[in-house]
Inverse folding.
């Protein structure tokens, strides 16, 4: 298990408790009071740390290598998943997975960014950074879902769209811009959830939705904290300060109207109890599918357009 820097005091107490229990078992000693005292201290420390996470600490949890990815959510929340491939123009992009599935008895299209668990898989998945063909594949399948009148569920988890030369040559900016234009006009419900990293246009390229949710320790931002720090301070070490300034946490985004709901995670992050997160997220998705399915196509489009037009409104003092 990967331990983050701010979690090391927790690990130290957990290690002491384990060593004390092992020693007591070998020497047949009664160390119940000492263990109870340490466990009480551990519980307080976890509460103090996880209830007061800084934006930068949440970014670190969002990037945790054991955090559930899109295929994990699909496997645990849905059935009958059939993955579809290719943009019918250039190639398939393994950084975005997509296909038809069922959530309870509701037929849906589900898609999301997919990272890898090891170096080999990360190379195949391009670390969750999609190419233009990934966004074109996503749009092709969203039009198919519209044709069959199926709700669309989107799972966002990317540092950003791939910025390489090949991606730019094949029209990365155009592919994302086309998705923004076309998704706003889809005549079926679209529900997006940021499950980890929500990086810039790479996230927004499949993120135009009627309802946008975010997991408690995920983040959604116009730029990474490191990228922001490099621009503003010429030093990526200032990333913690940048994370705070960017207002990228669920609480800030909810206040600004960028997201509609924060989905709870267990203390410490989704990787510590994936099943609990799946239950919470599935409940939210089913609620919004039911809520949006009763809207007429005209009302659905008007509501979605209004939602995004209102983001960023301000009054001058």
């Amino acid at each position: 298990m990967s331990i983050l820097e701010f979690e090391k005091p927790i690990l130290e107490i957990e290690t002491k408790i384990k060593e004390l229990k092992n020693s007591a078992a070998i020497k047949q000693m009664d160390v119940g009071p000492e263990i109870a005292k340490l466990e009480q201290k551990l519980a307080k420390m976890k509460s103090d740390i996880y209830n007061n996470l800084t934006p930068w600490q949440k970014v670190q949890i969002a990037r945790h290598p054991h955090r559930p990815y899109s295929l994990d959510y699909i496997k645990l929340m849905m059935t009958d998943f059939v993955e579809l491939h290719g943009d019918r123009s250039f190639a398939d992009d393994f950084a975005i997975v997509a296909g038809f599935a069922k959530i309870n008895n509701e037929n849906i299209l589900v898609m999301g960014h997919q990272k890898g668990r090891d170096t080999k898989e990360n190379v195949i998945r391009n670390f969750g950074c999609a190419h233009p063909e990934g966004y074109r594949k996503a749009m092709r399948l969203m039009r198919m879902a519209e044709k069959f009148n199926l709700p669309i569920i989107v799972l966002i988890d990317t540092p950003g769209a791939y910025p390489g030369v090949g991606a730019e040559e094949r029209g990365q900016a155009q592919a994302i811009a086309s998705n923004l234009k076309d998704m706003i006009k889809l005549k079926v419900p679209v529900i997006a959830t940021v499950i980890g990293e929500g990086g810039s246009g790479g996230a927004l390229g499949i993120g135009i939705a009627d309802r946008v949710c975010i997991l408690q320790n995920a983040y959604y931002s116009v730029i990474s904290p490191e990228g922001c720090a490099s621009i503003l301070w010429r030093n990526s070490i200032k990333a913690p300060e940048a994370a705070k300034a960017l207002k990228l946490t669920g609480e800030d985004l909810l206040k600004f109207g960028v997201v509609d709901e924060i989905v709870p995670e267990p203390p410490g992050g989704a990787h510590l109890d994936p099943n609990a997160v799946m239950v919470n997220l599935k409940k939210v998705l089913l609620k919004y599918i039911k809520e949006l399915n009763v809207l007429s196509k005209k009302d659905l489009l008007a509501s979605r357009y209004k939602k995004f037009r209102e983001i960023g409104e301000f009054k001058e003092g």
Summary: The beta strands are 79-83, 96-103, 106-113, 152-158, 190-199, 211-215, 219-221, 261-263.
